[in-house]
Amino acid sequence: MNDTSLLSLEDLTVTFANANGGLEALQAVNLDVPEYRFMAVLGPSGSGKTTLLRVIAGLVQPTSGTVHFKTPEDTPPRIGLVFQQANLMPWRTVIENITLPLELRGDHPGVARDRAREFIEMVGLDGFENSLPRSLSGGMAQRVALARALIMEPDLLLLDEPFGALDALTRERMGAELLNIWQARETTVILVTHSISEALLLSDRVVVLSARPGRVVRELDVPFARPRTEEIRYSAEFVALTRDLRDSIQEEPEPMPVEKPRFHSRRKLIGR
């Protein structure tokens, strides 16, 4: 592991059992995640991107290989996880959803609510503290989910297509807000996305996985200085890198359909 790495994956392989002898989702993945940096993971559908995040979060056990965190005295890392769907508790208000991790930890309710108000302001939800999830737009719900993940001050924030269900303009706005929050909080981030331009705009490093079983086929250090704005998307270098990364993502070919022979019953043939 590099001295500046928060996380190291070594020969990580994940195989899921099935009736055909096993489905290999990830194969011999080796990856160092620098501390306080923003990393994006790209790859075709089914390449194991979500599986990779779930292994890092401890939700899925690898078949072989190791996941090693560099934390003080090898203490368990604090990990925040945001999915494509906000997964808010519908009977809890915005502030109650955000305070949930602190409640589970046993923090004093007053302290937890004061802390939650800081994050409500950070994600731009002032005035919606007592709103229920059903009254929120998709972008607002994802802000709540992000605040809920950040309130524990995680060492590592894992984002699994958090803006994938949003419309294009809301997605761009949420990306810009995420960038501002990350720059203020100095948290290590791994973002899974299908958007090449989103990966280039937000991250310091882009990792490309192959088609299943997922392997690291490319790592790119993003050359653009920070802070970044949306206008960078239209620069010649940005467009060239977008095309270059697109060429690195090879979709796994779909199997050719096998057409079954058509048999007609003797009765049907006689009736013609």
> How do the strands line up in the largest sheet?
5-6-7-3-8-9
Question: What is the CATH C-level name?
Answer: Alpha Beta
Largest sheet: 6 strands, mixed
CATH superfamily: P-loop containing nucleotide triphosphate hydrolases
Annotated CATH topology:
Rossmann fold
Cα radius of gyration in angstroms: 22 Å
For the secondary structure, the number of strands is: 9
Uncertain runs: 252-272
Q: Count the helices. How many?
A: 8
Can you write the helix and strand succession as a string?
A: EEEHEEHHHEHEHEEHH
Identify the overall geometry: globular
The class by helix and strand makeup works out as alpha/beta
β-strand percent reads 15-25%
What is the CATH architecture descriptor? Answer: 3-Layer(aba) Sandwich
- Quickly count the domains: 1
Portion in helices: 25-40%
Mean pLDDT over the residues: 88
N-to-C span:
74 Å
Please give a structural write-up.
There is one protein chain. This protein is of the alpha/beta class and 272 residues long. The chain has one domain (35-58, 76-253): Rossmann fold (3-Layer(aba) Sandwich), CATH 3.40.50. 33% of the residues lie in helices and 22% in strands. It has eight helices and nine strands. The chain has helices at residues 49-57, 94-105, 109-122, 138-150, 168-185, 196-202, 236-248, 266-270; strands spanning 5-16, 23-34, 38-42, 64-69, 79-82, 156-160, 188-192, 205-209, 216-221. The chain has a six-stranded mixed β-sheet with strand order 5-6-7-3-8-9, with helices on both faces. A three-stranded antiparallel β-sheet has the order 2-1-4, covered by helices on one side. Strand 8 (205-209) and strand 9 form a beta hairpin. The model is unreliable at 252-272 (pLDDT under 50).
